[in-house]
Amino acid sequence: EVQLVESGGGLVQAGESLRLSCAASGVTFDDYSMGWFRQAPGKDYEGVSCIRSTDKSTHYVDSVKGRFTISTDNAKNTVYLQMNSLKNEDTAVYYCAAAAGSTCPEYHGMDYWGKGILVTVSS
């Protein structure tokens, strides 16, 4: 059984940092590409970042480039999203997701999802 459990969310002020963690079980990062998505109030899902299973290349939506970093720790089977210089517009529920294979699909192409965790950035 695959389980993805996010942690590390909360309330921060603009300009501050947070690190989200996603504890994964039932998947290996050599077989699954891992992604972070978010959904802001009243908006659709948005792909934030992804790391590919094969070459470990990382990808980011333009709005977070230079501020967010995705990484994996195989020993802990955990995916991280380091978020720096947070902005009000980063406020959203953040989801960890896994996709079998080497691509980073859109949200409808992901195979497994965590339940999400709220990040609120206040000004």
Question: Which short descriptors sum up this protein?
Answer:
single chain, 123 residues, mainly beta, 4-stranded antiparallel sheet, 11 strands, 0% helix, 52% strand
Helix content: under 10%
Our estimate of the beta-strand percent is over 45%
Averaged pLDDT, please?
97
| Number of β-strand runs | 11
* Distance between the ends: 40 Å
**Which spans have pLDDT < 50 for at least 5 consecutive residues?**
none
SS-based structural class?
Answer: mainly beta
C-alpha geometry: globular
Outline of the structure:
By secondary structure, the protein is an all-beta fold. The chain is built from no helices and eleven strands.
Question: What does this molecule look like?
Answer:
The strands form two sheets. Strands 2, 4, 5, 6, 9, 10 and 11 form a seven-stranded mixed sheet that branches. The chain has a four-stranded antiparallel sheet with strand order 1-3-8-7, with no helix packed on it. The model has no long low-confidence stretch (mean pLDDT 97). The chain is built from no helices and eleven strands. The protein is mostly beta strands and 123 residues long. Helices cover 0% and strands 52% of the residues. The radius of gyration is 13 Å and the shape is globular.
